[in-house]
# Entry
Amino acid sequence: MRNSSEDARRRESWLRFRDHRNRALSVEHGWLTLTSLQWLPAEPAPLDQVTGLWSANGPASAGGHATLTANADDGLYFMETGEPAVGTFTATLGNEESLLWVRRGSIAVELAARGDRYAVRTRDNDSPVQADFEAVPVFDYNPKLVVAGRFDEYDQPRTLPIATSNPDVPGAITAVGTVSFELDGTRHTLVAEPEKLGALSLNFHDATNGNTTAGWRSVATRRPGPDGTVLIDFNRATNYPSAFTDFGTCPMPVDGNVIAVPVEAGERRTR
# Structure
């Protein structure tokens, strides 16, 4: 027998979560503003949607750096200081690091190291995706999709290879254990990644993908109890940026992280 007052409390908390999620997505130069992903060439050259000449002299892991050469007519300004970017400048990043480096008008230029290569992503506050955004479509709250599970921790964290939303960018995750739970009469087990303060992240495919939902989604749990018990609220399943834009490099689920039944909760497909 369900506890109706507990269900109501969780639904109110979910509504606050949804409000926070929509506001976080629509921030200036956020994920909804991505308009390009461009790999930097070896020799200085212009790029689309941004002025100046850009290049990279080697992979990030081998000490390579990115270079920008700009003049006053390029109209570029450093994001951090607001000072004009006039001259030749370099920046060094570790793999998977990013830097909002310069801006011009409504466009911010993010320097990124992905797959050990340097790239820039343009983030335009005037992008149609940002301009048209009101809220992520979601399924109605369903208390039956708040399920109890069990976390079994690995003796040591494991590094596992994954694919990403960009075929040119390989990825890897740190896995800390598995979470098992029952849904629609079937037992499922997902590999878990660490979140802040001991919480867990579950990145998963399910039977709704490509129809009513994006290709995959993620749900975060609170910290498991001392006995490994954990609560999974699939109403809080969220899309990755790649559900909104072609220019993300988002991690896909590790092989086997598949829920074979429809998870009709959380965020829906956006495009």
Remarks:
- The first helix runs from residue 4 to 25.
